[in-house]
Amino acid sequence: MIRLFCGLALPAQLRDRLISLGGGLPGARWVPEDNLHLTLRFIGEVPEPSFDDIAVALSAVKAAPFDLTVAGMGHFERKRRPTMVWAGIEPSPRLLDLHVRIESALRRAGVEGEERQFQPHITLARFDASASPERVAGFLQANSLFRAPPFRVEHFTLFSSMLGRSGPTYHAEVEFPLAAALAPDRF
Ligand code: 2AM
What we know:
It is a single chain. The protein is an alpha+beta fold. It is 24% helix and 36% strand. The chain has four helices and ten strands; from the N terminus they run βαββαβββαβαβββ. The strands form three sheets. The chain has a four-stranded antiparallel β-sheet, covered by helices on one side. Strands 2-7-6-5 form a four-stranded antiparallel β-sheet, covered by helices on one side. Strands 4-8 form a two-stranded antiparallel ribbon. It binds adenosine-2'-monophosphate.
């Protein structure tokens, strides 16, 4: 089996800025710089022979490059305890469109549908039970005005994820370029 997800890799400058926000929260495991990404669609464990079908289906996804802005902070919680903090994404119809196209390509490749609503975010840290909700709230408040310069999305990536003791290792298996529609053939 192989654990897969589609995502956007982030430019080094943006990852640097996100990493610089880290630290100072008890019970937090900060995502290492190399692992920072935006998940477009979590696929999960699939049998290895399915990999090629998935890659072929994704290669048929057509979308033009677009700009994306990381701004704001948020968190997810379970039973009223924070489980993670994330950097937000400015509303982007182009990103939602890319997500929809990826979703239908994956369905064509036989991947089961995703129940969860797409909520674009960049996970910065995950918390264990010792995290203090007040400290997390303070972090969110202190960074609520975070905003990075826009970056150009020119490809999306099929990542594999290996779970290990010190956290997951992601590997970019295939990059799928986004390309502006070709001008119609004049001849
Ligand atoms: P997260 O950052 O919100 O935790 C690789 O594991 C990526 O896929 C992570 O960014 C993670 O999102 C997401 N992911 C992991 N398990 C998932 C699941 N069961 N459902 C949806 N997304 C998941």
